Amino acid sequence: MKYLKLKATTFLIAATLASPLAAQEAGGRLDIVVQPEPPGLMLGLVQNGPTQLVAGDIYESLLRYDGDLTPMPGLAKSWEISDDGLTYTFKLNEGVTWHDGEPFSADDVVFSADVFLRETHARLRASLAYVESITAPDPLTVVFKLKEPFGPFINAFENGTMPIVPKHIYEGTDFANNPANATPIGTGPFKFDEWVKGSHIHLVKNEDYYVDGLPYLDEVFYRVIPDAAARAVAFETGEVDVLPGGSVENWDIPRLAEMDGVCVTEKGWEFLAPLAWMWMNNREGPTANVKFRQAVMYAMDRKFMRDVVWNGFGTVATGPIASSTNFYSDDVTIYDHNPDKAKELLAEMGYDGEPVRILPLPYGETWQRWAEAVRQNLSEVGINAEIDSSDVAGWNEKTSQWDYDLAFTYLYQYGDPALGVSRNYTADRIKKGSPWNNVEGYNNPELDKKWAAAATMVKPMERADAYAEIQKEIVDDVPVAWMQELTFPTIYRCNVNDLVTTAIGINDGPRNAWIEK
Amino acid sequence: MWKRFRSNMGAMVGVALLIAVIVVAVIAPMLFPQGPWQMVQRPFLAPFAVDGLPLGTDTLGRNVAAQLAYGAQVSLLVGLVSTLVALLIGVPLGALAGFYGGYVDEGAMRFTEFFQTIPNFALAIVLVAIFEPTLTSITVAIAIVSWPPVARLVRAEVMSVRTREFVDAARLAGLSKQRILIRQVLPNTVSPIIVMASLMVATAILLESSLSFLGLGDPNAMSWGYMIGAARTVIRTSWWLSFFPGIAIVITVLALNLIGEGLNDAFNPHLSRKGKA
Fold this sequence. Notes:
The complex is a heterodimer of chains A (517) and B (277). In chain A, 30% of the residues lie in helices and 19% in strands. In chain A, the strands form six sheets. A six-stranded mixed beta sheet of chain A has the order 14-18-13-17-15-16. Chain A has a four-stranded mixed beta sheet with strand order 1-10-9-8, with no helix packed on it. Chain A has a four-stranded antiparallel beta sheet with strand order 4-5-7-6, with helices on one face. The model of chain A is unreliable at 1-22 (pLDDT under 50). Chain A has helices at 2-23, 49-55, 106-120, 122-128, 167-170, 228-236, 252-257, 290-299, 302-308, 339-349, 365-380, 392-400, 417-420, 445-455, 460-477, and strands spanning 29-33, 63-65, 71-73, 76-81, 87-92, 131-138, 141-146, 190-196, 200-205, 219-223, 242-243, 262-265, 275-280, 315-316, 356-359, 385-387, 406-411, 480-485, 490-493, 496-497, 514-515. Helix content of chain B is 74%, strand content 0%. The model of chain B has no long low-confidence stretch (mean pLDDT 89). Chain A binds chain B through residues 228-229, 249, 251-252, 255, 304, 308-309, 360, 365, 368-369, 371-373, 375-376, 379, 386-391, 394, and chain B through 37-39, 43, 59-61, 129, 132-133, 215, 218-220, 230, 233-234, 236-237.
């Protein structure tokens, strides 16, 4: 009996060890472009793209998510949701330490979620409104109790959403001005080493990482190169190994992809699922008329725009929810390129040629070309459109003060309609002064009720039905002109393996990545 | 004078080139009735790759030849109008300063220096950024940065002319000061102003192109600078997108410079002969 057990254990160990050792090779260094230079690396305070890219290796959350948004173990090795959807119990990994050597425990999780992030993280705060209590019955267990069921809560344990920060450093301090923010301490696979402003950020392997064998890489350099053309050159000359999405112009991607030993992937954006659309001002002007808004949809050749402006990267959007986000439904009216139908709708509403302004996103060439393509399509069906120009500050000002007719934007969905979609369509999110809420001014009390109900249903099947119904209705109203699910392809050398394996891509990619020599 | 101008080879080449550009600008709507923005073919077609698209297509599949033709309209329009506006500001100010002298001169020149101390292009960028880029704001911005040299030139000319004997004669004949300035002095300063204006048109076209190149052009007007700016990111794969508008700018600016030089020689035969000796 004893012998048998021993043998079984040995077999198990051999199995777990064999797979990493046989294939993966340890060692090496990875150079990744970061653009623009992050404003800071303390992930609990700053959550913009570049910060998440770098700090995603330093900090961790309880869970990670694969490409289908299925939760995977992170700091938590297992978790349970009670049948009533009110209690979330997490069992934490043993032997986890902070980068400064202090032991990590459930108290850190409670402090992070209940104290630190409640103060600093607006997006998480909205989800925490559903939480009644966060407790640590023992050092390896954390329990979240909710006031009412909140389906998307399981998606809140992502690194950029709920990064776990060290209680022993931050408790009782002024979080934003703590000097420790300059030398971030996390539990992640890589430790912060140095940051040479304007040049690079250097991370080194966390030798004490709690997953055996991980990480494989010895060090990671995040390189700051301000010019897009120079970034492309740096990749060509082998100076950097990875170009994260958006770091070179779309037109450069095919050229770089054709190089020997270069791979391109569109994966790694499933959690954020950036969806681009044009706000259409529902309050005044021609865009207040639903027929006009439908005409805009039919007038646009969105497939052409995807193929030409975005070089074939991305997917034409069908409605408010991106196809990789949970509860997406394609059972909606599909707006194909149909100029005749657009003209018909314009004639029905009696469009008198009143000019409409298109406000592009001031994010560079691609967005400008996109607006030009839209203007051309609209003018072909007789809509008098012109492009309004603006810088980033001006774009923020015009959209948040509702001074626009059509305005490009894109927003992240965070895996669930209740987290990243309904905020743009419900009446309680109509508030002047922010460009991220219901900027178009869409007001449909019937749908508002359905959005609210769908967020708090317990069973995923019920939620799926509810959201399918919502999508069917809202797509006919066209409150905004849905353009495209954006993907920002990651370009990397093919000898870098397992770089993009999760729904947040290279934000936590170096954890599993290894270099084939 | 016209004879002297005509005998200047360079100047005549300039005139021919400029006329060609003007003709293209005028007949652009006839050649390309669908406008410069229409997406006509696959993007990134090289010149002559497809019949009817001698200069290829751009990043969105728009006809580069059509863009060039419509770009000529914008460049010439901005160049001419902004120069006119600059003259309207600079000539009266310079004339008053030079003719009346004293406090008027002091005031006008300090005001002019105020503009001269700020780098032209930087000021133009700031103005366009503040007013939001439209053809009008760009034209006005270019005019605002180009008038100070006009004012200084006119002032110097007026100062030298007003001490001539015929001005004294006019004064003795009882003409009012205004009348003397307008009827006697100013007409004698016209030739350097014309020379300068022709060169200013060239500078204005360059300024407009630079602004558009930086993305500060009117987003609803096709211009050469915009074409180069948009093509900058693909210069390694699609050279023709920046090459042709670049050539267009060179030709137009060169033509205007040749004309300006020719005019200068024609108006100042003495100087030009000395130069050649």
